[in-house]
Write a structure and sequence with these properties.
This protein has 249 residues and is α/β, with parallel strands linked by helices. It has twelve helices and ten strands. Helix 2 crosses helix 3 (71-85) and helix 4 packs parallel to helix 6.
């Protein structure tokens, strides 16, 4: 039986986990660090330290390979984790780039501050195509999502501001540069004044991760903070049975 570790700064990576469990059978071990979310505005040194603590916790489950279900960790800590643990780590940004390059036209990257500051999507897409890539950091969205405010006046106010350039320029492609953002896809579409192509890096991820399909499946979710709000969100995101436990790392 294959053991797959999936981790994120909070609940957002569950959107990645949900795509995986629909495509591949395995023992899944997910850790979301909701207690210290969001990561996007933290310095790189701290993000690497937190990522190391997450993987160190998951290692007790004999993980065969890891999916970094967080754009911020993917852009800042992948090399460190691969070198230290000598195991396969698949960053969600790789899936995001592969998905984005399937489309034509300009792009808007809506992401965390750290992901935008890394310019990963901008540099990669502009190097490989003639498209222009705009970048907007949306630092307030993760906290709202983690608190369960995925729709309504608070979310609409933030999105109207963050999506202003998209509405002005009618940018055809919008990359969700944070795995929390698929959770608010409906709110994003509501606050656009045109029909945009919304690119979710987690889509088709089950086809991109190469590991042997097992006979059975188990989904184990560990969160560093569990409350009623994130329990409701977990049920909203996942289409499978799961075990949930609060853990200190």
């Amino acid at each position: 039986m294959t053991n797959i570790g999936v981790f994120d700064s909070g609940l957002g990576g569950l959107s990645v986990l949900n795509e995986l469990v629909k495509k591949k059978n395995a023992n899944y071990y997910y850790l979301g660090d909701s207690l210290r979310a969001p990561y996007g505005s933290r310095p790189q040194k701290e993000i690497i330290k937190f990522s190391d603590e997450i993987v160190n916790f998951l290692e007790k489950y004999n993980i065969d390979r890891y999916i970094i279900a967080c754009n911020t960790i993917s852009t800042l800590a992948t090399d460190f984790l691969q070198e230290k643990y000598q195991k396969p780590f698949y960053p969600i940004t790789k899936a995001g780039l592969e998905n984005a390059l399937l489309f034509k036209g300009d792009y808007l990257v809506l992401g965390t501050q750290a992901t935008v500051d890394s310019h990963f999507y901008k540099n990669s897409i502009e190097k490989l195509s003639s498209s222009k890539v705009y970048e907007i950091a949306a630092p307030n969205l993760v906290k709202l999502i983690e608190n369960g405010d995925i729709e309504g006046p608070l979310m609409d106010k933030e999105l109207k501001s963050y999506l202003e350039i998209a509405n002005q320029k009618q940018i055809p492609n919008i990359i969700l540069g944070c795995t929390h953002y698929p959770i608010i896809r409906n709110s994003i579409e509501k606050n656009l004044n045109y029909n945009a192509n919304i690119i979710n890096p987690a889509s088709n991820i089950g086809k991109k991760i190469n590991f042997e399909d097992s006979d059975d499946i188990s989904v184990n979710i560990f969160m560093t903070k569990v409350n009623e709000e994130n329990k409701k969100l977990i049920d909203k995101i996942l289409d499978c049975n799961y075990y949930l436990e609060e853990k200190e790392i």
